[in-house]
Amino acid sequence: MARVDAELAELHNAGNQTQSTAGEVRSSTQSVLSGIEPLSTGLVGDAGDAFKLWVSTVQSEMTTVEQKLEKIGDAINQSAEKYQSSDSESGSSIRGVGSGMDGIASQLR
């Protein structure tokens, strides 16, 4: 049981860290884009348009990365919950078999 508890804790930790990483990606992306925003004021014409397109592309791609990391974190946490549920059901089944065996043993005596 202690092994299962440790594995569950490890799974939940991995899920939470993955979701935390999504937040870090979001924060880092915002910092980088805020830092380079002043550069756009000096860019005009095609250069300005290309820069704005690049910023938009970076924002879109980072949003996709964040969403995927959050989904992965959710999936890991859901897996941990299913694992815990499965372990509980297995334990109940084993206990049921054990009590059935006790009944058989007492009848044989």
UniProtKB/TrEMBL annotation:
SUPFAM superfamilies (alphabetical): EsxAB dimer-like
Record-linked Gene3D superfamilies: ESAT-6-like (1.10.287.1060)
InterPro entries in the record: ESAT-6-like_sf (IPR036689), T7SS_ESAT-6-like (IPR010310)
Extent of Polar residues compositional bias: 14-32
Source organism, top-level taxon: Bacteria
Signal peptide annotation: none
Region: Disordered, residue numbers: 1-32, 79-109
Pfam families assigned to the protein according to its UniProt record, in alphabetical order: WXG100
Bias (Basic and acidic residues): 1-10
Similarity field: Belongs to the WXG100 family.
Official protein name in the record: ESAT-6-like protein
